[in-house]
């Protein structure tokens, strides 16, 4: 159980309220703070959850954009390598035919 926020009231207030009244007042204050604490925690959690969701959506969008860029770069790289391989094969075929004719 959580520790109460207030354990006693100031002496002057206790004199006005009496012992029983002061105890009831302290219980009332502690209950009120406990209830407000729960409400605040719920609000903070909801805001955190909303913010986390927003940040995740931004992250996903950035991630998708970067993946798309990587795919384009990979496609360009593969196309370039394919051109070099085809060129090398054609050049080697020509060179091989010259060597065979000798």
UniProtKB/TrEMBL annotation:
Keywords: Membrane, Transmembrane, Transmembrane helix. It comes from the Bacteria. The chain crosses the membrane at residues 84-100. The keyword Transmembrane helix applies. This is DUF1640 domain-containing protein. It comes from Leptospira dzoumogneensis.
């Amino acid at each position: 159980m959580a520790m109460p926020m207030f354990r006693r009231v100031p002496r002057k207030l206790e004199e006005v309220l009496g012992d029983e009244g002061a105890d009831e007042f302290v219980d009332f204050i502690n209950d009120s703070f406990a209830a407000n604490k729960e409400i605040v925690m719920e609000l903070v959690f909801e805001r955190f959850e909303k913010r986390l969701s927003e940040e995740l959506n931004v992250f996903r969008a950035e991630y998708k954009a970067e993946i798309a860029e990587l795919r384009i770069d990979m496609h360009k790289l593969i196309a370039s390598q394919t051109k070099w391989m085809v060129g090398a094969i054609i050049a080697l075929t020509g060179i091989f035919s010259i060597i065979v004719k000798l």
